[in-house]
Amino acid sequence: MDASVRPNMQAYLATLCRDAGCPWVVVGGVEDHVHVAADLGKKLRSIDLIAHIKKESSSWIKKQGNAYHRFYWQDGYALFSFGAIQRDDVEQYIRNQEEHHRKKTFQEELLSFLKRYEIPYDERYIWD
């Protein structure tokens, strides 16, 4: 998604999360992916939040002009948990995505996370 609509999309994603019951949320990203860190509270399941924000934000962006009428999120997603003590570091990481991705692509980043945390994967199924 291009830089002209990205801040509005990120704000919309944050609003969707807060409206769904997330007491804390930070959103960031670049043209080819988005990062959302959120406190799910006690009643919200991550899969339900992801499905909700993908559906609602897809509908929203298609109303932002002809350039987005074919927009869709990829089917998959990556989900990582972190503790309260890591919150500031995670927020800083998300807010600095443009700087971060000058050095490492999204694909390189995801593969490094999967390897670092020893998460098994099959590369045939992680890229749309």
Protein described:
There is one protein chain. The chain has helices spanning 6-19, 46-62, 87-95, 97-100, 106-116, and strands spanning 25-30, 33-38. The chain starts with 5 loop residues before the first helix and ends in a 12-residue tail after the last helix. The chain is mainly α and 128 residues long. The mean pLDDT is 91. Strands 1-2 form a two-stranded antiparallel sheet. The chain has one domain (6-100).
Label this structure with key terms:
128 residues, mainly alpha, two-stranded antiparallel ribbon, 5 helices
Structure at a glance:
This protein is mainly alpha-helical and 128 residues long.
Draw up the topology in text.
Blueprint (H helix, E strand, L loop, with lengths): L5 H14 L5 E6 L2 E6 L7 H17 L24 H9 L1 H4 L5 H11 L12
Antiparallel strand pairs: 1-2
Helix pairs in contact: 1-2
The fraction of residues in strands falls at 5-15%
Q: Kindly state the mean pLDDT as a whole number?
A: 91
Pattern of helices and strands:
HEEHHHH
Question: What characterizes the major β-sheet?
Answer: 2 strands, antiparallel
- Counting DSSP H or I runs of 4 or more residues, the number of helices is 5
**What is the domain tally?**
1
Distance between the termini: 16 Å
Low-confidence stretches: none
Q: Work out the number of β strands.
A: 2
Could you tell me the radius of gyration in angstroms? 15 Å
